[in-house]
Each structure stands twice: as structure tokens, then as C-alpha cells.
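Cross-posting from the modeling subforum.

Setting up a comparison between two proteins and wanted a second pair of eyes on the formatting. Protein 1 (sequence, then C-alpha cells):
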Amino acid sequence: MSQFYKLKIKEVIRETAAAVSLVFDIPTNLQSEFTFVAGQYITLKATINGEEVRRAYSLCSSPKSNIVKVAVKAVENGTFSVYANEKLKSGDELEVSKPEGKFLLHPEANKNYIGFVAGSGITPVLSMVKSVLESDDSASFTLVYGNKSINDTIFYKELNELKENYTSQFNLSYVFSRENVEGSVFGRIDKAHVNYFIKNIYKEIKFDKAFLCGPEEMINTASETLAENGFAEDAVLFELFTSSIDEEAASQVKDGQTEVTILLDDETTTFTMPQDTDILSESLRNNVDAPYSCQGGVCSSCIAKVTEGKAVMVKNQILTDAELEEGFILTCQAHPTTSKITVDFDDV
């Protein structure tokens, strides 16, 4: 189960007209709980209009900085994102989980990394950039960052300062879709752009790993293009904003009932649920304090293992084939397909 700690907001920084950074004050006795690896996220919990809301946000600070900082971009009709941008201020308290996640970069000497990101996808990758630049002067990071315009670009000033301070280690290229800027590329990050940077601008660099973060279409296109350019499958890591529905899996969801047994913190809870709803939602309705963050199938907070019965996931861009073979599921996307199912949150 995710453990939350009440933390005060030390600073709210306006990054763009639609995005803020939140810097948390970490008490000395919790410093060890909030050490993290570049690419990890934390879950923020708040009560908004009488309803508990949880959202996962990637850490954008350097792991060596002892700073816990996330960026929140307001989205249309977004409950927490709008609240963070319009209401939160220094001194406010939020409940915050320990860092977690599988989108990780462990810097190594003499390695060259490249990132293709769009919009707020910069947040985990900025942490990765800083981690590489601070680790060893033989390592490098090349960043291709897409936005509508300069004014929409989160961390524009900070990135440019990093470029000035780490000229030989950090390559920075912008792609703008609604503004022509000297020295940048116009459009959205697509196959032609990925080829342009790999085969032309940065053709002298042999990249060891690529990190992708942003919309699903961009990630799919970039992944396919990198594979065509010789990148091994395990050398391309990604994190999505949102994930699309697997129509074939969705067609397997039925209208029946399932008896569900949940094992969490060595306690067992059993209830009956309709198969056309997901296991996480029904667990929460039955007072099971199951771990979760995004509820959108793009993080791994709600992962559990099916030890009896079967379930189908309507979204999955997180779990590997090997993990699926072992019985792991994202409970927020999993629908039971058998009359009985046992789900173990402890065996993760």
C-alpha cells in the first residue's frame, strides 16, 4: 500500500501561463524516504470539493539536489491540475507518497543518451538530463523538445542555462508547432523529425539509450523510427501521458459477476463485482485501501498479481510480456473474466 506523508509546499513557481512547479519542504526525518532516481514520480493527494483526488507527477529536480519538485500543467476540466495552478500556495499542505516508477535512468560513464519529449513530458526527462550532467563529464544527453511556442515551453530558461553550463555534454534542440524560431525546427515531432536529428544533426553521436515522454502518437512514431535506425527494443524507454484503449481486449469484457478476493497488507477481503467495471474501482468501493495514482493506466502504482482466475486489461503500456506471463495486472485497467479471481497486492 502506498504510504503518504503530509508535506508543506515550500514554493510555487509559475513556469508558464498554464503550468506551475511545486517545491516541497522535506523534514529531516523524511529525507531518506524521498530519495529518488531520475524518472520517478510521486503521488499527490488532496481533497477538492469534498472528494479525494490523487494524481501522479514526475519529479523534475536532480536526485542529488535534495529537492523534491514537480511541475503541474493545467489541462481543460482537470480537477487537480487546475486546483494546483489556481489555488495552491506556499505553506499549503498536501499528502505525498514516496517516489516510485519504472521509467528510470541510472547514469553511466561514457554513455550517450537522447530524449524526445513534448509538452509536460519534459518533467521526468529534465531530472534525467540533470542526473547525467552531474554524474560524469564523459556522459552526454541530447534533448529534442517539442512545444507550441516558446511561451508554452516549461523550463525554457532553465534548459538554456544548462546548455550554456554544459556545452560539451548537453545538446538541445527545440521543435515548435505554432511559432517559427531561429535555430529551432517547425512542426510536431514525427518520423521525419526523428530521422533528421538521428541521421543529420546528431549523426556523429552513437546513442546508447533513448527516453521518450509525451503523447502516445509521438511515442509510437519515435519508437518505430528509432528501431528502424538500429536502436534495440530494450534501449528505448518511454512514459505516456495517456494510453489508448485496446479494442480487442475491451471486446472480452462481459456483463457477468465475479467473486473477488483481495490480499493487501496480509489481510483478505472478498466481494462480488460486475465484470464490466475495473478491479481497482470496485476494491475502493469495498473499502480496500488499494494503492493507486493516475487511474489511467499510465503509471504502475496499482500493480498486483492474479494468483487465481483471469482478467483482461483494456489498457497496458506499462507491463512487459514477462510480467504479464507472471500474472501481473494494472488493477485500474483490469476486468475479471472468470467467476472467481484472487488478486494479490502484496506479491509485487
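Protein 2 (same layout):
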Amino acid sequence: MAEGSVSEVETSFQKFAVHGDSKATGKEMNGKNFVKLCKDCHIIDGKSVTSTDVDIVFSKVKEKSARVITFEQFNLALTELAPKRFKGKSTEEALEKLYALVVGRGPSNAGVTKVAKAAAVDRLTDTTKYTGSHKERFDDSGKGKGKAGREDAADASGYVSSYKGSGTYDEKVKEA
């Protein structure tokens, strides 16, 4: 096997090792991510290699008390899975084909929940159709005014808290 492909396989290993785990370093991979790698890279084909086979191989190559595998153990696992996946090929040839499946792959996010854009949602969020006090919360472009649109700002311009009409005192004195 070419030296370049080992580093490429290791790059894929690291991408899957850190998938979904913010604390992961990329040096070790847990069982869940190993199964994900096998699924995403089509090592699991549902016929000759199933997720159960992958779990068994993972348990076999990891340390007794460990819950993760290193890259070396990952290579052992692939060596074990290769003849199962590519029956009738030599071990080296099967491993070569298996590495080819892994190289350049990263975790795919197939089936990730999409944002639903239904007509009902559009209708409910169309600010032009708002009436009453809700209408005041948006400017002409439909952008929210923030806090200014939600509260009546208190006029604290008078002498005391409830005094309304700043600047009218002098006029009242002249009238008297």
C-alpha cells in the first residue's frame, strides 16, 4: 500500500473521530463513530458486512477496558473487515479496496433535519398582515423595532415622576 494513502486514511479517521464530540482530539475513535465511518464509507453493505460485524470487530481490536480505538487498532479492524467485504480477493487486495472507500471521506450529514418552509409559517410571520398593537412593532420594511416597538417609553422629562408636559410651567404662570 502506498504511503500517501495511509495518511489520507488517517485524515478520514480523524474527521470521523471528532464527529459529534467537541472534546475529541482525533487520536481515538469511539464505537459509534466507527460504525458511522463504516456506514458512510460503504464498508457496511448490509450483506457481507453488517453493523453487528463492525461492532464485533471494534470490540475485538480495542483494549479490554477502553471505549475507544487508536489509528493502529483502526487499521487492525479494517484488516479484519476487508476479506469479509471483498470476498474472493487476497487480503492485500481487499484491504487496498477498503482503504480506497475510506480515503477522502468525512462524516456525511445525510438525513439532517431541514428547516420547514411551509405556507402556514410564511403566513404567520408576514408582518404586513399584522394589526393592532403588533403592527407597531415593525417598521415599513418588516424589520422588528426591538424594545422600542414593545414598550411605551416613559416620558421622564418633568419635575416629578408623573409630571407630564415639560416646558409648560412658564405658560401657566403667565396666565395666572
